[in-house]
Amino acid sequence: MKSSKNSPFNLTTIPKHIAIIMDGNGRWAKRNIFNRFRGHRRGAEVVPRVVTACHELGVKHLTLYSFSEENWSRPKEEVSALMKLLKEFLISQRPLLMERKVRLRAIGNIDKLPPEPLQTLHETMKLTQDHQSMDLVLALSYGGRDEITRAVRQMAKEVLKGNLSPEAIHSETISAFLDTAEIPDPDLLIRTSGEMRTSNFLPWQLVYTELYVTPVLWPEFNTEELHRAIHEFNQRERRFGLTSEQLSTGATP
Ligand code: IPE
Ligand code: IPE
Ligand code: MG
Fold first, then answer.
1. What is the pLDDT of residue 5?
2. pLDDT tens, position by position, 117-172
3. How confident is residue 253, by pLDDT bands cut at 50, 70 and 90?
4. Is the CB of 69 under 6 A from ligand 2?
5. What does the DSSP assignment read for 25-93?
6. 137 Cα to the center of ligand 2, angstroms
7. What is the DSSP string of 180-203?
8. What DSSP character marks residue 162?
9. What is the C-alpha to C-alpha distance for residues 44 and 66, in angstroms, rounded to an integer?
10. Is the Cβ–Cβ distance between 233 and 188 less than 8 Å?
11. How far apart are CA 139 and CA 68, in angstroms?
């Protein structure tokens, strides 16, 4: 579905990769006098709608910040409720992933997840591994500095083994050692609920990503809000360090 005649939104260029910081579940719950868990549950219900909307637009990769490395320090009850929700979510999304041929992937230190959600995650990834219409990438137990640290450690091991020469380390080499190897950098980052920060999300990959922050809380995010974000993306000029004049004469970064 591209820009339709009646749509107020400019959807001419669809970002290939959209990353979302799904924030504001707690504030939504508080505003509605619910406990935080109700907020997380409502937040999880929004995900399939956004996956469907992205799939219909032709987005190729959708990365969702679902649980950060720092979120492990939240109250024990909240963490275990989120882990239970993760398992239920993965099972309930299988029909959608199968129907739309969406491949599930994960980034982050996933081995820190409890055995049950981890097993369900592995099973769901295996079930969808041949799907090619869109990647749904869940950032779980994810921290950008942790991802870079693990990559550097891995590279150091390869250097010690004689498989990698320090002179042969370029930025592409580093990208290839990250959890996001083979996934292009995001074109558009959406953060809900208004915070102007990236909270340890994809620090290496976001360097030239267009940032879009909306005050809308994640449980209230919907297709219209997604289209609004893409509309805004279409107003931007991505210069990648070049000048406007260079771009209009066809120079490529
Ligand atoms: C995002 O919502 C979900 C996770 C971080 C798991 P929050 O729980 O951070 O919601 P707020 O920021 O308290 O409103
Ligand atoms: C970022 O949200 C993590 C996720 C959305 C999973 P937080 O709510 O944890 O971020 P801060 O603490 O406001 O920076
Ligand atoms: Mg938050």
1. 64
2. 999 999 999 999 999 999 999 999 999 999 999 999 999 999 999 999 999 999 99
3. confident
4. no
5. HHHHHHHTT--HHHHHHHHHHHHHHHHHHHHHHT-SEEEEEEEETGGGGS-HHHHHHHHHHHHHHHHHH
6. 17
7. TTTSPPPSEEEE-TT--S-TTS-T
8. T
9. 9
10. yes
11. 7
> 68 in ligand 2 pocket by Cβ < 6 Å?
yes
* CA–centroid distance, residue 68 to ligand 2 (Å): 7
Q: What is the pLDDT of residue 7?
A: 82
Ligand nearest to the CA of 43: 1
Confidence of residue 248 (pLDDT cuts 50, 70, 90): very high
- Strands 17-21 and 61-68 come out as parallel
The neighbourhood of ligand 3, an ion, using CB within 5 A, equals 23
Asked if 20 and 63 count as a contact pair (C-beta separation under 8 A), the reply is yes
Ligand 2 close to Cβ of residue 198 (< 6 A): no
71 is a catalytic site residue: yes
Answer yes or no: 200 catalytic. no
Q: Which residue ranges have their beta carbon within 6 Å of ligand 1? A: 22-27, 67, 71, 82, 193
CA 192 from chain center: how many Å? 13
